Structure formats: C-alpha cells, structure tokens
Amino acid sequence: MAFALLDQIRSIFDGEPGVRKVADDPVLSAELLMLFRMILADGSVSESEMVAFRRICKDAFGIAETSIDSVIEYLNEFGYETNGSQAIALFRDLDLERRKQLARHMAEIAKADSQLAESEVRLLRRTLDLLDISPVDVVKPEE
C-alpha cells in the first residue's frame, strides 16, 4: 500500500512511466502510432481493437495497464507530428524480426474485430512493402 502511494506521488513529479517510456523511445512511439493508425484505418474504433492494442502494449512492450490511457493521450497529442512514412522509416534499418513483429501486431489489430476492411488490408500491404516483409512472414508463428 505504501509503495503504491509512493509510486503515485513519484509519477506526479516524474511523469507517467508509460508515457516516459514511449517518449524516450522513437521506435516504440512509431510502432504504437502505426498500430493506432491500423485501429483507425477502417474509420471506426472497435472495443476488440482497443483490447488488442492494450494487450500488445502490456505484453510486448511492458507498458502497465494503468499507463495505457496516458500513452494513448500522448500519442493523440504528439502523434500528429509524425506521418506513417516517417514512422515506417524508423523501422527500415531494424533487424528483420523486429520488422516482422510490427507487421504481426498490425495484423492482430486488423483482425481483432473479425472484419478485415479493404483500407486495413491496404495499410498492412503498404507497410509490408515498405518494410520488405513477405505476407507469409506475418502469418507464420514466431520461432
């Protein structure tokens, strides 16, 4: 209990830990922006897509559930400064597995609402092309 209170007080003075993590890592910021663009690609935000986004934030990036709303707010406030091409450019020099991870996360969000819209397919296809990734790599399980 006392540690939780201290963490809350520290986060007031130091800022939200999840937001700090995202703000300090341009590649992570770019990936989260691309995932958010996938959520918005079909013109609506479904609860299942947000659940998938939150799960990816927590499981893949270690962002605490309590920080995710603040991270989303941060992305909304500062994400407009980065377009999709700029975000993808940060990934081009990364290793193949990291690029595949982005594509898998985008596909997971696209499929979350059980409806693949043409706009989601186009965004994923364009991302795969820019990252030089085969669609087969997205559907293959991680080794």
Could you walk me through the main structural features you see in this protein, from its secondary elements to its overall organization?
The chain is mainly alpha-helical and 143 residues long. It is 74% helix and 0% strand. It contains 9 helices and no strands. α3 (26-40) runs antiparallel to α4 and α3 (26-40) runs parallel beside α7. It starts with a helix and ends with a helix. The mean pLDDT is 84.
H and E order: HHHHHHHHH
The total of beta strands comes to 0
State the shape.
globular
Helix content: over 70%
What's the helix count?
Answer: 9
What is the C-alpha radius of gyration, as a whole number of Å? 16 Å
The chain-level mean pLDDT equals 84
Unreliable stretches: none
Structural class: mainly alpha
Distance between termini? 40 Å
Largest sheet properties: none
- Strand coverage percent: under 5%
Question: Can you give keywords for this protein?
Answer:
DjlA_N, TerB family tellurite resistance protein, single chain, mainly alpha, TerB-like, 74% helix, 143 residues
Provide a concise account of the structure shown.
The protein has 143 residues and is mostly helical.
How are the SSEs ordered, and which strands pair?
Blueprint: H1 2-14, H2 17-23, H3 26-40, H4 47-61, H5 65-78, H6 84-89, H7 96-112, H8 118-131, H9 135-139
Helix pairs in contact: 2-5, 3-4, 3-7, 4-7, 7-8
